[in-house]
Amino acid sequence: MIWKFFKEYRLWYSLYAIMSALYFLMFYLYRLPLSYFINSLILNLTLLILVTIWQYHKFKQKLNILHHFIYVEELKELRSPSERSYQDLIAKLKDKESEESFAAKAEMEEWQSLIKMWSHQMKVPISALSLMAQTDHLESNEVQQQLMKLQNYLDSLLTYMKFSQNKDDFRFEEVSVSSLIREIIKKYRITFLAKNLSVTIQGDWLLKTDKKWLSFALSQVLDNAIKYSKNNGSIDILITDSSITVADKGIGILDEDLPRLFEEGFTGYNGHKHQKATGLGLYMTKKILENLNLTIEISSQIDKGTDVIISKTTKDNDDKP
């Protein structure tokens, strides 16, 4: 503790020693009586010792406070301007730490809720497969359909994890939207057949974009169209050189749910009723499309169907004179 004290105030003690040496040199050079210098030195040293004892006591108290304080209010005994500045800095750091801790806790709770929700959804196809195995009714199409559901849930979870970590791995290339949609439909063919859905595709769009991420976004849109389509229904896809429209004739979406469809975690009435939504598909779709300079709009009517329109982002960047 003593060594720390002298290390803290070494500049002042060094200055005192230098000043004393200079005064001695002046007395010596001008042949002044050294007894005056010695008496002055003794008096100054006495004062210095007393001040040192008092200052050391304050220094020791300050270190004890700093070593054991928990709340910033405990530092109020430190009153010098620099110590007040340190208090303000510590308060800001503790506030920032509290905010980060709260954010981390909220994120952890969100992930726990998400995992529980995904686990609950994955139990449905697993239970279906288990029941088919127990009853020896392992129909090929039904097994493939349940396995596809599991794969889609896992793909969505992994994509969300990657998406939430803000990993920008976009690679733009020229993509035929019509060919990409046909690949996605081929992937979902078992589900189309299970609900006896027909699909029509008109037009094409050679779009410079990231094929993988656009495929994920379109898969989410088509997956929703399939989920909420009625048996023996149809899905019409119209592609122009600036937009993609996916129209189904399914159960539709409530008007009050439309403004919140792209909110993270929002499932809406259909998602609750049919237990088919995680509330993340459209949220991720919108964010991904924004990164691809595309927009998404949804219009719907109950029992008449839903139209999803993906189009180029309009930019009014022309400078006006």
Automatic annotation (TrEMBL):
Residues 117-316 form the Histidine kinase domain. InterPro entries: BphY/WalK/GraS-like, HATPase_C_sf, HATPase_dom, His_kinase_dom. Pfam families: HATPase_c (PF02518). One of its GO terms (cellular component) is plasma membrane. GO terms for biological process: cellular response to phosphate starvation. It is found in: Cell membrane. One of its GO terms (molecular function) is phosphorelay sensor kinase activity. The chain crosses the membrane at residues 12-30, 36-56. SUPFAM superfamilies: ATPase domain of HSP90 chaperone/DNA topoisomerase II/histidine kinase. It catalyses: ATP + protein L-histidine = ADP + protein N-phospho-L-histidine. Its EC number is 2.7.13.3. It is a multi-pass membrane protein. Keywords: Cell membrane, Kinase, Membrane, Transferase, Transmembrane, Transmembrane helix, Two-component regulatory system. Its main location: membrane. It is an enzyme of class 2 (transferase). This is histidine kinase. It comes from Streptococcus pantholopis.
